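Researcher: Sit down with what I've pasted below and flag anything odd:
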Amino acid sequence: MWYKPILWISLLLLWPPERTRWVIAENSSLSVNGSTNINKFSCEIPSYDQTDTLTVSRKSKEVALTGNVGLKIITFDCHNSMMTRDLRKTLKESQFPRLYIRFLSLSEMPQLRPEPQQVTGWVNIELAGATKRLEINYQVSMDDQKVIHLLGSRNINFSDFNLVPPRKLGGMIKTNDQLTVAFHLRMSAVN
């Protein structure tokens, strides 16, 4: 009876993967929230200026979420011209004009329904020439208009990317090392 396990393994390997493609809409956004020793700040990229596609596929128990998002550093807006300029300079915008998020995996296949589903996944974030692999907490849902919402968040540090947080007035105003990065991808499914 040794051939039965081999038959099942062969069928699993030959079984086609479940695959869905999601096109990212322009009204997707990303925000970076942080603080200084004086106050809090929020900088955002209010819209996504290109068309990219993410692919979700499952073969056996593994779920891959693949695709890239490339965000222009120059589109960050901190709602304060000095803070915006300082953030762009700190992120080395002239040398590394884009922040990349490369999606790698999900903990499970998302069930697209109105109630948000909590899943985790791995991404590579490339910022200012440094790449860091991070686990992200997601909420996945689909609204009545069939728009898929992928909300992700993660605390990161400037130092994770070999960056020094900005300082002002001779160091009297110091930006804390930790930031919260949050994004909201609005997508539609295509086959």
Notes: The CA atoms of residues 43 and 77 lie 5 Å apart. The chain has one domain: 17-190.
